[in-house]
Specification:
15 helices; disordered N terminus; globular
């Protein structure tokens, strides 16, 4: 019989919740400090309402909201969630101003690049978060959606954001229709993912299962980094950066110049071992029915968080200082965080995932009491997928029509088209199994989670790993 730390800790008395003033005050003070530092930079530059400043402000508020939602999950105090909701609204206002600024500066809706689509994705996700919280009473939803929003804004700060004339293929009204549908659909998929996670918590899914899944998810992040960027003598390969032009350095068209940061690869290897250790201990503990290994897996989580923070600090400091050698060309070349946006966002996503698990591990009983009934969560997840699916259908249909007008063919099996179809099939499978086979509960929740994973690969992975006709998107 599998041994659960939830069962082992069930009899332990829970400490009384504090009033929560300290967390709210700390978050507000940090936000004010960051605003003040940003104001000093604005005074120096003279550009008050620049897009980067607006995004920085939205990042502050979204991050504050994420911290307070997690604090609400731990404490259960109404003050935390009320202030968190206010922070989401303020972040959304600045996000809206950033969208408007981009629209005005570009002369067209912000749908022409990954940066612009991400801008709209985060905007829509924040709006849907408030809708789920206020209409359906799922007040804990922001503990999942706001970390996604923060990761998105951090990624935006690093992605190329210069306004360029639209390429001929994008000079069409169908661009606005097609991408609007995509961003609404992807945001609804993100919300369904968060709702499915809430359902699994409320439904009593073993906490240790979350332990294994979280460890596995973060291990995939660091494993992918090591497979693609680890240098055999322990360095980490990153793209060279031209600070004067604020762009990546290319050896030739389509061939980026990589430089190697010494020893950083070994640090990422140690971090990978630390984040994978809970999964290994969990698997062995379940196989041998040894509770001490399961408890050890939870303790190893703290080491995993520490190693990720060290990796984050090391990556930021090393990528911003000095020049590094390259195996592709002679000399030394600088790099920047902006040259490796997905490495940084991957590390941040891993840290958030570990923190969310610790919130669950420490306060499982409180979280279940804060969530609506499983029937409500299951029904709202179904409604959200029911909104996302027709949007995905219209997205593919309008894209096919636009492709025929632009390239003379409705379908060319471009990687982005193929994975958009795969995404559609996953959610079609969800609806089919629910309507015809009566799937409810955990099986439906697993479908929603897998669907969002496919969406994220379609959104980011295909763009950077499988270039094709949609390379600009």
């Amino acid at each position: 019989m599998a041994i659960s730390t939830t069962q082992l800790n069930a009899a332990e008395p829970q400490p009384p919740a504090r009033k929560g003033t300290a967390l709210v005050a700390t978050v507000i003070l940090v936000a004010v400090f960051l605003f003040f530092m940003g104001f000093l930079n604005v005074v120096k530059s003279g550009h008050l309402l620049s897009e980067s400043n607006l995004l920085f402000a939205s990042l502050i508020f979204y991050a504050a909201a994420a911290a307070l939602y997690i604090g609400f999950g731990i404490s259960g105090l109404e003050r935390h969630v009320r202030v968190a909701s206010l922070m989401v609204i303020l972040g959304w206002v600045f996000n809206t101003l950033a969208v408007g600024h981009r629209w005005y500066a570009a002369g067209h809706p912000p749908f022409a690049s990954v940066y612009e689509m991400l801008l709209c994705f985060v905007w829509t996700l924040a709006l849907l978060t408030q809708l789920a919280e206020r209409k359906y009473g799922i007040r804990l939803i922001g503990s999942v959606t706001m970390p996604i929003a923060v990761t998105g804004v951090v990624l935006m700060q690093l992605l190329p954001s210069d306004v360029h004339p639209l390429v001929p293929a994008l000079q069409s009204t169908w661009l606005h229709v097609h991408v609007t549908l995509a961003m609404l659909a992807y945001s609804a998929c993100a919300l369904s993912f968060a709702l499915a996670m809430m359902f699994l918590i409320k439904d009593g899914l073993n906490t240790d299962t979350f332990l294994a899944v979280t460890s596995g998810f973060v291990s995939v992040i660091y494993g992918a980094l090591l497979v693609t960027r680890f240098e055999k003598w322990g360095g980490l390969n990153v793209v060279a950066w031209d600070y004067a032009r604020r762009e990546e350095i290319f050896l030739e068209r389509g061939v980026r110049l990589f430089v190697t940061i010494p020893d950083l690869g070994w640090l990422f290897m140690l971090t990978f071992a630390a984040v994978a250790a809970p999964l290994v201990l969990y698997v062995i503990g379940q196989a041998r029915h040894q509770s001490n290994l399961i408890l050890g897996a939870n303790r190893a989580f703290f080491v995993g968080i520490l190693m990720q923070v060290i990796a984050l600090v090391a990556f930021i400091t090393r990528s911003q200082s000095g020049g590094y050698p390259s195996a592709m060309a002679e000399g030394v070349y600088p790099t920047s965080m902006a040259a490796s946006p997905f490495i940084l966002s991957g590390i941040i996503a891993g840290i958030f995932a570990f923190l969310l698990y610790l919130m669950l591990h420490w306060r499982r009983g409180d979280l279940e009491r804060l969530l609506p009934d499983t029937n409500v969560l299951d029904r709202v997840t179904y409604k959200t997928v029911g909104i996302a699916f027709p949007l995905l259908t219209l997205m593919i249909a309008t894209g096919a029509y636009w492709a025929n007008r632009t390239w003379g063919s409705y379908w060319s099996w471009d990687p982005k088209e193929t994975w958009a179809l795969i995404t559609w099939l996953v959610y079609a499978g969800y609806l089919h199994m629910r309507i015809t086979r009566g799937w409810r509960g955990r099986r439906a929740a697993y479908f929603a989670i897998i669907g969002f994973a496919v969406v994220m690969f379609t959104f980011f992975g295909v763009t950077y790993l499988l270039p094709g006709l949609h390379a600009y998107a």
